């Protein structure tokens, strides 16, 4: 099973790249399924139903989210209508949407889970308890299990990698919007990377206009964020999972810059 | 001018790698000067005078620090005795030690600056104001200027890269202990990477035993950290700076794993 | 000089109380000047120009602000038109508005300063450095100096009280919306209270509908805040300052509940 | 049932006051049971077994703790030996100690619960979920239930008061070390105060020497805390609970200064 992971898609720029590049990327890697983090896809924060539909139409199979999941308020109304749009599983019940999905492709079931870190982020339910509970439910149902762990602190993300090693096929981090250089296969066969990076403007700060962010950091006052313009990038991960064992057999990260 | 940057050296394991590998690395890259972040070098947090001396004896030219600078209490007594041991410049005055140094090699002056980020970290003086003030003092004295920006948030680190672009030769991040995959030369000629990573145990969490960190994150209680054992890694950066223009002409990151 | 201090005014409810009760309170205490913190006066966060004018018309002499100062975006356009509307002094320059004012009443000059704490709040310039710099400017101009220190952490607020003792007439805390029971005159003659409390709904959570806040804390998701209804309260402080010495001679806190 | 609550006891100074004053206070108010928060009793942070024993010998019936519970490392070894020493209930299982106890006096059972807030504090299990779960277990066993809610944010503490109103006899806050002026009986009969304050040095910052704290806040560097000296204070609450209904019938706060 060949899987393509796309890092946090930011704003219209990010959506446009997906529209233009995803078909090529998928055929280049002969991808079976594509998972994209879309928490910043609509105006930089959150996801509208219209944009969610476009991602699915443009070839994304599963959308994961993060701390910005509720920023477009309408999502609480539509999220339950989409089987393959998931949000961090560790929000307390009751909560709209769900934290994992089981996707089927070529007769093979792939569990996809989204969990948020809690260090420097919202105080959600313990990520480690959460992954234990979800695996208890789904491990017998699907050999291949993918975890998008949306976190800030490198310590928490690496700890989650080791904690899940041998129990899931892949743990990849999102949220920092900067790809890390540490992709590897952990001792028990789980693919791992601390962060896959982002998809959108190349010459901004996490996708936002750099002068606005500098102005914000210097003035310590609120600013109106605007998505950066210019050259684009798509950051992601390409992995191969053994369908019989659920082990990761290959993991490759890429940063593609598009002028 | 060829410069070797070494990411956060962690504990005895990290110190041992430096002792064993630094001479080879320096000759392999024909390095002129070596800068190492040593905030975690003694027992995982802080730096003793004994260890500082060893680093200098083993070939480190300049030591930079970070948020753990004061963890070994004796440093306030000895830091002013070492010209080439610097701590984050944005601590309020009066403060032991200094935030930059001008190092001379082959008749060429190299300014080395250490600044701490303030997002998710200690509330120090604004990093952007700080770099402006230091550059005002030293820009006329040295063409080559290197900044170790010790920060957590990717946004703040990238913003510092753009903010300093064209005014310093290199901005590299430290602190997260995970190397990022985004090294580049910015439009005005400044080399940049969000984080250079760490030097010490490979199979731990930022250098610490992984089971202890997982136990800490699950229990939410204090634990006694212990440095991980096993395979080692050295993470760093190799850069070439044009001595006439101060521009970065080459930047290359490396993660060397040592069994 | 008799001074009336009014704690954080919240929403329309708080504005109505001021309109109804301020004249009575001022005559009851024979107040010379009235200072009110209005950072939450417009819809719970921020202050519109229309509401600022109403406060001045209703008898407030000086308006202080806090971390919500920029929440109503228009304030950056009008704040410089109002001599007696001040915002935390420790925002970095350049910044709209100013951090202190010198008000004159009956031929006596009263310095009023607004500073924000930085523990658990925005990383502004050091409050202690800030008060030193302002006192250097104004101490020779006015005997009576009042500081609204807008902070979260009790440690930082008490520390500011002691730090300013003998140099200002009164340090009072705002921001937590809960009045503390620790008003006193410090050894060198400065009146002090950790927090004066709030003005607005009595049966809410800091002025906001209690069920909404409980829902927010349990769900960890964003909610739309609504100002609570029902019984009202006005929290404040009444102080007497010796005009010759600038020392505080009397300090009395009050919580008035209005059915 | 007459209950005496003692706010965070700080250091040897605080222990001495308890030894000297508790017998008088108990007889003055004809107290049936005494509950003291002792998280800072040993050297300012944590609680040794020796000091815990002294509190029980000096007339404290139940000891509650807070975020400093684990600071004296030996507590994990002895806490399970003491029925009436409780720690925040919302630490994840497994955890040494327990979060509530049922104390019996004159044939009447009194449930005493300790929960920590999570806003600005450690990311523990949701306090609201925690109180629900404990009440489910103990509500049928004891009419009188007391909650020490150890929190920083006033919003979270007030929200807990309303959330528990009618289900417990008393919710009192600890942790900020500053007594608030908002004690009241909530609509459904629960006594409430946001913080009871502290017991120890009067002229310090939360019990610590004020010059050391100011030095810490100005320098942003670690300091060695020392307990303040001089005048002492004991802060607390005196409440009367109806034994048949479990409702709070009287609540009175006190700050006693001892020269
Ligand atoms: Fe994101
Ligand atoms: Fe995110
Ligand atoms: Fe480090
Ligand atoms: Fe660090
Ligand atoms: Fe406020
Ligand atoms: Fe505020
Ligand atoms: Fe305490
Ligand atoms: Fe505490």
TrEMBL record, chains A, B, C, D:
One of its GO terms (molecular function) is metal ion binding. It comes from the Bacteria. The active site is at residue 68. Fe cation 2 binds at residues 39, 67, 150, 175. The keyword Hydrolase applies. Keywords: Hydrolase, Iron, Metal-binding. Fe cation 1 binds at residues 8, 39-40, 177. Its cofactor is Fe(3+). Belongs to the YmdB-like family. NCBIfam families: TIGR00282 family metallophosphoesterase (TIGR00282). PANTHER family: 2',3'-CYCLIC-NUCLEOTIDE 2'-PHOSPHODIESTERASE. This is TIGR00282 family metallophosphoesterase. It comes from Alkalibaculum sporogenes.
């Amino acid at each position: 099973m060949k899987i393509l992971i796309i890092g946090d898609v930011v704003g219209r720029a990010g959506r446009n790249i997906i529209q233009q590049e995803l078909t090529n990327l998928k055929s280049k890697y002969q991808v079976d399924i594509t998972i994209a983090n879309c928490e910043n896809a609509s105006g930089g924060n959150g996801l509208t139903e219209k944009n969610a539909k476009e991602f699915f139409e443009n070839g994304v199979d599963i959308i994961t989210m993060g701390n910005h999941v509720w920023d477009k308020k309408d999502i609480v109304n539509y999220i339950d209508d989409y089987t393959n749009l998931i949000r961090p599983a560790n929000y307390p019940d009751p909560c709209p949407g769900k934290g994992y999905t089981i996707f089927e492709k070529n007769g093979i079931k792939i569990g996809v889970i989204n969990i948020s870190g809690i260090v420097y982020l919202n105080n959600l339910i313990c990520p480690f308890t959460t992954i234990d509970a979800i695996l208890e439910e789904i491990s017998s149902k699907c050999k291949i299990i993918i975890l998008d762990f949306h976190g800030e602190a490198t310590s928490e993300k690496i700890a989650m990698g080791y904690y899940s090693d041998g129990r899931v096929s892949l743990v990849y981090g999102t949220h920092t919007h900067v790809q890390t250089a540490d992709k590897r296969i952990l001792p028990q066969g789980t693919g791992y990377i601390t962060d896959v990076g982002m998809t959108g403007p190349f010459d901004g700060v996490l996708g936002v206009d750099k002068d606005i962010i500098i102005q914000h950091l210097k003035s310590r006052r609120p600013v109106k964020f605007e998505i950066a313009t210019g050259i684009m990038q798509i950051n992601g991960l390409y992995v191969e999972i053994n369908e019989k064992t659920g082990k990761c057999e290959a993991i490759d990260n890429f940063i593609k810059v598009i002028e």
